[in-house]
Amino acid sequence: MARIRLSVVLLLLAAPLVHMHGFFNQWRSGHSVNTEKCFCELSGVVEDCCCDISTVESLVAKLHPKLDYLLKRNYFRFFRVDLNRPCPFWTDDGACHLKDCSVSACSEDDVPVGIKAGPPPAVAGIEPSCKREKDLSRVDATLSDVNKEAFEEWHRYDTVNDSFCILDDEMSKADQLEYVNLVLNPERYTGYRGPSARRVWDAIYQENCFKPKTSPSKNPFMPEQQLSGLCREKRVFYRYISGLHASINVHLSAVYLKPGFASVWGPNEEEFARRFHPAHTDGQGPIWLKNLYFTFLLVLRAITKADSLLLKEQFYTGDSVEDALVQTKVAELLNLTQSCPSTFDESTLFTGPDAPRLKEEIKAHFKNISLIMDCVGCDRCRLWGKIQVQGLGTALKILFSDQGPKWRTTPFLKRTEIVALFNAFGRLTSSIKALELFGKRPS
Q1: Which residue would you say has higher pLDDT here, 212 or 7?
Q2: How far is CA 315 from the centre of its chain?
Q3: How far is it, in rounded angstroms, from Cα 292 to Cα 345?
């Protein structure tokens, strides 16, 4: 008997999450949950897009293993972040219920030297000339501190003005930033819930998603029928945020601490049903899941649009073999994304006479959301909230840049933005794939 128990424990430790569904079916809390109605909207064309559900699922099946491999490489798994910046909107009163809320930062020795130091001069576009360095030093010596600060501010303005979110390396001092190994700090359920978590999402939906002031509902979410009253740009923005929210909720339900186990994680159908079943969500849960597909398609379109830029990226870590491997794998991934038919047509947005004002308004709202991530009371949730919001903001920057065609030939994305973009895309892809754990059948 003891040997049998030991065998079960060893099986648990060795088996990947995706292969544990059968095991977890034996550990449910007394009854099986019917999640079929959660998927009732997952058919046909995705609203405001040019692609259907079945095409998305077919592509996800091909993308998922490639992304999973790529995101474990050094370039993509080390993320520089400030997890201690105070909430700018209210006093943080959140608290985690589990030790798994904490984040383990890397020591300096853990981070590849190329990532810490940045790209070499030739990669960064700097002429490695001693004479030029001396000339620059001589010119810098004649500048006042005020002028130097002004030049830096102009550069920050040019960068931020084209961005849809606030990046930590633009807001925080170097000694406030730390590297985190994302593979060792995965996104999963931590027990963070209640008033603090609701306050974050209420602030996002009520104040930043263009909910009509005349709406009689106290629910922060907008019913589908109410979206028709918004212009297409604001409707797209709402679906984009709703899809992110749905993706996060799928992750938390799919990687849930099993009752009675110290560190065994797996899908929790009760939690999934609580978050998406029509009976628990005023009928909106299935629509939120469809918005997940919408957000996936928007980010996919951004990555496809930026392919020429990404194919030139060195993905520099200081390890030439590793860097070449990542370049090859990214090229394979981009080739796969190009195989998909048209997904989203960004040229139909911001075309009217009010377009400049509307774009700035949407930028301001998304930047606000990126700042709200500093109000998340759980470090693990804050980390992944920041990564995914920055990733989605980077996608918007690619789709709606004011720089025109020149962004394709100039340094346009920072390493932080590329890492966030790919990790956000990976999370969306994993969420759609994880629906199979809850009974989703191919469309």
Answers
A1: 212
A2: 19
A3: 17
* pTM for the full predicted model: 0.84
Q: Say what the pLDDT of residue 194 is.
A: 83
| pLDDT over 90, % of the chain | 57
Predicted confidence (pLDDT) per residue in 50-91, tens digit: 899 999 999 999 999 999 999 999 999 999 999 999 999 988
Q: Which two tokens stand for residue 300?
A: 């996919």
The string of DSSP letters for 300-350 reads HHHHHHTHHHHHH-----S-HHHHHHHHHHHHHHHHHHHTS-----GGGSS
Closest C-alpha to 382, from 73, 143, 96: 96
* CB-count exposure of residue 433 (10 Å: 0-12, 13-18, 19+): buried
Say whether pLDDT at 388 is over 70: yes
Q: Which helix (H) or strand (E) holds 204?
A: helix 195-208
Rounded CA-CA distance 160/152 in Å is: 12
Give the pair of three-digit tokens for residue 129. 């000339």
Which residues are CB-contacts of 419 (< 8 A; sequence separation ≥ 6)? 75, 76, 78, 79, 387
Q: With the CA atoms of 435, 438, 442 and 443 taken in that order, what torsion angle do they form, in degrees rounded to the nearest 10?
A: -80
What percent of the chain has pLDDT above 70? 77
Name which of 361, 373, 366 is nearest 201 in CA terms.
Answer: 373
| Residue 112 burial class via C-beta count within 10 angstroms: exposed 0-12, middle 13-18, buried 19 and up | middle
Q: Which value, to the nearest 10 degrees, does the dihedral of the CA atoms of residues 380, 383, 385, 386 take?
A: 170
Beta strand segments in 211-292, E: 256-257, 265-266
pLDDT band at 401 (very low <50, low <70, confident <90, very high): confident
Q: Determine the Cα–Cα distance for residues 121 and 119; give it in Å rounded to an integer.
A: 6
The rounded Cα 282 to chain-centroid distance in angstroms is: 27
- How many whole angstroms separate alpha carbon 95 and alpha carbon 93? 7
Cα–Cα–Cα angle for 109, 115, 121, rounded to 5 degrees: 130
Convert 219-231 to b/e letters by CB count within 10 Å (16 or more is b).
ebbbebeebeebe
Please, which residues bridge with residue 78 across strands?
181
Question: 3-class SS at 81?
Answer: strand
pLDDT digits (tens, 9 = 90+) for 319-357: 999 999 999 999 999 999 988 767 899 999 999 899 999
What does the alpha-carbon distance between residue 194 and residue 3 come to, in Å, rounded to a whole number?
A: 42
Strand partners, 266: 256
